Amino acid sequence: MNKNTRNGLLALGLAAAAAWYKMTPEQKSTVKAKVSDLGNKVKDGLANLKKQASPNNLQSAS
Description:
Elements: H1 3-22, H2 25-53
């Protein structure tokens, strides 16, 4: 990771922390719900990919 990328990520993190600090409790709960929902969607998507790639589901080439 080069210096510009690291500094950009640091600035993004500081901006997110400042925004989080200024949010009302209702806004924080909305953000938490959205992040949790996104995490669940990613987990479900990975589980589906794992099922599709399992050796039982692969067809042989013979």
